[in-house]
Description:
This is Protein Wnt. This protein has 9 helices and 11 strands. A hairpin with a 4-residue loop joins strand 3 (142-143) and strand 4 (148-150).
Amino acid sequence: MVNWIQLTQCADSALSSLWLGIASFGVPEKLGCAGLPLSGRQKELCKRKPHLLPSIREGARLAIQECRSQFRHERWDCLLLPPGSAAAAAFSVFGAELSSGTKETAFIYAVTAAGLVHSVTRACSAGNMTECSCDTNLQNGGSATEGWHWGGCSDDIHYGMWFSRKFLDGPIKNITGKDGNGLISMNLHNNEAGRQAVAKLLSVDCRCHGVSGSCAVKTCWKTMSSFEKIGQYLKDKYENSIQVLDRLKKKLRRKEKAQRKIPIRKEDLLYINKSPNYCVEDHKLGIPGTQGRECNRTSEGPDGCNLLCCGRGYNTHVVRHVERCECKFVWCCYVRCRRCESMTDVHTCK
């Protein structure tokens, strides 16, 4: 499986240009489509729609940021491998997860596809595109008897969904022409599950109109949920993901024979292989392990020292914090503060 995402970091170590695509490469903002490490179809799409490149970057930034947020307390913390490192060169900034067929693979594909839909749709609603804008199909609808009507600028996710499919799904389908590749079908399914999450979580916002602040009539429109909410929804799907067979007959099937009559839904996340425990460093797979990770001694959850440290125990050291405190304004004209010190116990995995 080829690489999927590559990260470029600015001098200030902030996340910079983040690219969705088949190749992994950091690129300057002004580089044209011809110079980008994309597949043939992606380059063609890029040349036709160069105005979408900022949305591609933003979609990748959203995806990586949300992945790290959702998994920050777990053994696999969506850690990005440093660009240029041996592991990143061998795999991608996500290590071997993009080709492992695990639950983590499922989440990465889903959240990146959702991020691209979200960013492109936002650009459409903001008026930054000539070929898409608001969802005008809703403008004349509503319920006069209930005192509301559709109006405003509803987010039209159809263009974002279309572009995400064209940009992300096409290259996967062209990786191999062989039938029966369960991993490819799994990745395509999880891409679509990410897009369905954005659609499912569309909400309705309303504004009241009337004399003296009354709500005699409401104007309502549809808007996308925050990407944080979408990320949490996909994390829940990750927790309840379904294992499927790695070889196809006609379609993806559940691995558990007793459950095969239960249909697989579009919004379900699918995986083929069980995940490693991520406890011990594995250079070949790009797994950093949990040694040195900070843990919570009193927590029973995944961030607790018992689970996060995989039973190896933990070290405790005291960290001294010095900060300004009890600041008061003195006339005239300066602020006087005390210098406060505190000691905190920090626990890290052995």
